Amino acid sequence: MNQVVSENIELRNRLQSDFDHSLSHSGISGERVAKRLAELGQIGLTEAGGVNRISFSKEERAAKELVKKWMQEIGLSVREDGAGNVFGRLEGTKELPVVMSGSHVDSVPTGGHFDGPLGVIAALEVAEAWKDTNYQPKKPLEVVVFTDEEGARFNGGLTGSRAMTGEMDIDKQKSLLDIYGDPFEEVIQKDGLTLEGFIEAKRDLSEIAAYVEVHIEQGKRLEKEGLPVGIVTGIAGPSWLNMTFKGEAGHAGNTPMNDRRDPLVAASEFVSKVKDLPKTVSDSAVATVGKLEVFPNGVNVIPGEVRLTVDIRDIHSETRDTLAQLVKDLANSTSDKYEVEVEMKETLHVAPVAVPPDMQQKAARAVTETIGTKAYYLPSGAGHDAMAVGRHVPMAMLFTQSKAGISHNPKEWSTLNDCVQTIHVLNHFLKQLCED
């Protein structure tokens, strides 16, 4: 598959249309970044102008092979582990633990061109800049492409990074069926992988000094601040609460309003009040009801049951758990008010991961000394490979401004100017980590 050379010309032209060419310096080339984004953007290109590169597909494989080709052309030593994670290594002057940077190339079925690929191309661009300027770091640098970050195929995610860090429950993974009903083991075999390979992908984490990931923000904070890049303070851990409000179904015409036990009325009031709870515990906390089912769902029937899920997140475990309790308390008080029952069950509980203060400080120094803007800090509400890696080694993330906060959508967009400025910050940041 190394023969993939075509590119999304429309994407490349749009990226370069308003590019400030003075940003191409110190070995970093905006034109090369645009070309690589465009070449990856041709793989899995959809009619809507986005990409469909779900995990373990021929499209994800083709994208990995293209990145391998770029790594080899630069002169990096390239290897792929048993989980399909790809590593390109630039040796250091000392035999020390590596500094790692990268992201993923898989997408959701309706994905855009920046979520994942920007982080891979940014790390690769730094490695090529170091080669071009004859800079050899003290610590080795590894550019990484993680397998199946998005989780669109098996409703999971962070598969490659979890395998590398030894977090994977292989028996649970083996039991998974994909969106087409195919078992995990059968799917990965078609991609040339095995269950044994996923087990063997576990790495000695003492070999990794730090991990830095560039990613689009997937929000509007940087755009509102007019800044190209921000420093992530932590990655939120989700808690999912499944709730069932149970009342009494009845005829819409024959049941008086004062003689009803309507769970939809209770659930509606609950949903309307959930939005006010996060701000009482933290400025980074959020709570969302994105799924609601009504039974029996008839036009002329008072509902008997309503099921919904509350997605609760924060970058701090204490405030996230406090918010979860407030949500439960609200559900109980609302059900009492309307004389209905409520059942609750937590179906997901993932610990948040904070970015160490010293890593934030180094990132801030890289911002101010490289592009001269203020260091702006913001949380990540979405999960990333940095979450799995950051539970074991020092981790940091840089967010690139994302227009209108659009993500997982063909309209996803970050300007080439913002991308390249982020890469300059990454360059400075990785040099600090490699020389420490």
From TrEMBL:
Cofactor note: Binds 2 Zn(2+) ions per subunit.
Cleavable signal peptide: none
Residues given in the record as Zn(2+) 1 binding sites: 104, 115, 215
Stored CDD domains: M20_bAS
Domain Peptidase M20 dimerisation: 236-338
Keyword annotations of the record: Hydrolase, Manganese, Metal-binding, Zinc
Binding-site list for Zn(2+) 2: 115, 150, 408
Cofactor: Zn(2+); Mn(2+)
Gene Ontology MF: a single term: metal ion binding
Gene3D superfamilies hit by this protein: 3.30.70.360, Zn peptidases
PANTHER family, sorted: ALLANTOATE DEIMINASE-RELATED
Assembly information from the UniProt record: Homodimer.
Protein family (similarity comment): Belongs to the peptidase M20 family.
Protein's recorded name: Zn-dependent hydrolase
Organism: Bacillus weihaiensis
